[in-house]
Amino acid sequence: MLTISQDLVDRIVAHARADHPDEACGVIAGPVGSDRPERFIPMENAERSPTFYRFDSMEQLRVWREMDDRDETPVVIYHSHTATEAYPSRTDISYASEPGAHYVLVSTREEDKVEFRSYRILDGVVTEEEITIVQ
Amino acid sequence: MAIEVRIPTILRTYTDGAKAVEGKGGTLEELIGDLEARHPGIKDRLVDGAGLRRFVNVYLNDEDVRFLGGLETPVADGDTVTVLPAVAGG
């Protein structure tokens, strides 16, 4: 189960809306072992694409080092789908590489409705999980 | 002195859970060969027939080796090599 604050949900959705029709992506870091997403880090989509995303490699190094220094892990890795449902695509599954992360998917295909869902992706297996939103 | 190689979570199954291991070599390719000798299987996760795998980022100190010389990039004692799986999808 993912427990996340309403503020962080709003920030992910705002990022996804702002980058639409391209996919938006980012990380929410949290203390190692806590499973608590706390620090919002929007990332650049180096692909600038409506169908693909990839963290910029230099930005990723900087952010991962910073998390290391602060004893944090990427608790949430999020990205948006801009024309399809908020469910991991085949490429999302094959490139998923953080076994401890909650993979959050947002769909911006409809202007007035938000789809916000969370998954574990481990060894090619997708498991959707419940989301508890707290204030 | 050796070269420090920082290993991401997903590859620590090859290093008995170690976050960093040491290796040696004059180029990144030799270093990966040296790692493979002690951590069998790791090489296949880093390279394929065409060179470095597309969705693995390898950094020499502060630079992405793709902007240096790829597998031919010279490495030396005291360097730090960091491996990070690319975060990507569709």
UniProtKB/TrEMBL annotation, chain A:
It is an enzyme of class 3 (hydrolase). Keywords: Amino-acid biosynthesis, Cysteine biosynthesis, Hydrolase, Metal-binding, Metalloprotease, Protease, Zinc. One of its GO terms (biological process) is cysteine biosynthetic process. Coiled coil: none annotated. It comes from the Bacteria. The keyword ATP-binding does not apply. Residues 2-125 form the MPN domain. It holds the Pfam family Prok-JAB. It catalyses: [CysO sulfur-carrier protein]-Gly-NH-CH2-C(O)-S-L-Cys + H2O = [CysO sulfur-carrier protein]-C-terminal Gly-Gly + L-cysteine + H(+). InterPro entries: JAB_dom_prok, JAMM/MPN+_dom, MPN, VirAsm_ModProt. Belongs to the peptidase M67A family. Protease that hydrolyzes the covalent CysO-cysteine adduct synthesized by CysM to release L-cysteine and regenerate CysO. This is CysO-cysteine peptidase.
From TrEMBL, chain B:
Transmembrane segments: none annotated. Coiled coil: none annotated. InterPro entries: Beta-grasp_dom_sf, Mopterin_synth/thiamin_S_b, Sulfur_Carrier/Prot_Modifier, ThiS/MoaD-like. This is Molybdopterin synthase sulfur carrier subunit. It comes from Spongiactinospora gelatinilytica. The lineage of its organism: Bacteria, Bacillati, Actinomycetota, Actinomycetes, Streptosporangiales.
